[in-house]
Amino acid sequence: MERQSPEPVLTSGNIEDVPDASAALYREIVDLAAGTPSWLQSFAGFFTDAAIVLLAGLMVLCWWRARRLPARTMAVTVLAPAATVLAYGLSEILKLVKQVERPCRTLPEVVPIVDCPPPGDWSFPSNHAVVAGGAAVGILLAWRALGALALPIGLTAAASRVFVGAHYPHDVVVGLLLGALVVGVLTGLLLRPATELITRLRERQRTGAPRQPY
Other C-beta atoms within 10 Å of 126: how many? Predict the structure, then answer.
């Protein structure tokens, strides 16, 4: 009877669509996370999602503050969330195109500190990082002082995706860049017409003028 050869074991050097350096760094970070105190692991598991909610709250705070500020500032607070949603949508398209398996299912003997996402929830790029990058840049554009707080929160939120074992480092880097780029470019392109529209709406509200028919 012919012996069947065992299936090859994937290592950090032979994973399709994953840079070797990123896979190796992932394993080092996950091994480091596994050796940290349980309270830190629990906090990381909570923070990796809670940070996105916190950034969303800061964007709402920017909008609330902008109600009595110039129309340009209000325009940024409206455009930035919309652009962040667009960036998220683009990241979902990239996931479907690339379909890179999560490292917690691909690499052997890796034990992440959070549950591995289900099959079909692809790894590249990191949606969390996309939202974190877009939100942080949007907050910075709308309110520079608050942006100084949002940027480290966004960077830490993105980095936590590797720490908890959900993503490769390059997933996070590309996600951050995608979110920041889409928000920065789209806000810049649409800022002038959005400002003009908000100026007209405010003037109409102030004077009580009836809405013009289209």
Answer: 29
